[in-house]
Amino acid sequence: YRQLHTKEMRLSEFNQTEIKAVLGSYTKVLFVRDPFHRLIAMFLQGMGISPSFSSFIQEVLDSGMQNSSVAWKPLISLCRPCLIQYDYVVMFGFLRQELSHLLHQAGLPVGSLLPELTDSQVQWTYRWLSEQMFSELSAQQKKQLSHFYRWDLAAFPFFSSFLSD
């Protein structure tokens, strides 16, 4: 949709016909990650000023849906998977397999373009971190987090998420 590519525009600035044309001209890929793992990553990267994971989670919950940071906002509100028909949804933890398939589908050489990915080691580490950090949370915080991310948990197969219960 070349005539619209002359300047950066948000998708919301287009009318419905233009949105359909713009989205139809791209291969749409959505990368998703367990929301609890996203929170752990943000905490470890120092996104909050809290000294503990529990107080960081309370900051996230207190910020609410409207004022929450893009870093921990539910994916459903950011990526609109109910409105946009993504061609591929790539799950964190399966990057090597899914990226290989994606590159193959795009007709690109698979072997030379993929970085070294250690998904299984990362998954094990996040499983251990999740157990440790989830145990720091109160029952009320766990319930509120599950509610906060309820649509992400319903839309994507985060089967082993601590928030799924």
Q: How many domains make up the coordinates?
A: 1
* Secondary structure tally: strands: 2
Helix content: 40-55%
Strand sequence of the main sheet, in spatial order?
A: 1-2
Backbone shape: globular
Average pLDDT, all residues? 81
Largest sheet: 2 strands, parallel
Spatial separation of the terminal alpha carbons: 44 Å
From the alpha carbons, calculate the radius of gyration and give it in angstroms: 18 Å
Beta strand %: under 5%
Low-pLDDT sequence parts:
none
Structural classification = mainly alpha
- Total helices: the number is 9
Order of helices and strands: HEHHHEHHHHH
InterPro entries: Carb_sulfotrans_8-10 (IPR018011), Sulfotransferase (IPR005331)
EC number: 2.8.2.-
Protein name: Carbohydrate sulfotransferase
Family: Belongs to the sulfotransferase 2 family.
Q: What do you see in this structure?
A:
It is an enzyme of class 2 (transferase). Keywords: Carbohydrate metabolism, Glycoprotein, Golgi apparatus, Membrane, Signal-anchor, Transferase, Transmembrane, Transmembrane helix. This is Carbohydrate sulfotransferase. It comes from Irena cyanogastra. The protein has 165 residues and is mostly helical. It has one domain. Strands 1-2 form a two-stranded parallel ribbon. α3 runs parallel beside α8.
Short description:
By secondary structure, this protein is mostly helical. It has nine helices and two strands. Its EC number is 2.8.2.-.
Topology:
Elements (H helix, E strand, L loop, with lengths): L15 H9 L4 E4 L2 H10 L8 H15 L7 H5 L8 E4 L3 H11 L4 H4 L5 H16 L4 H10 L1 H6 L10
Parallel strand pairs: 1-2
Helix pairs in contact: 3-8
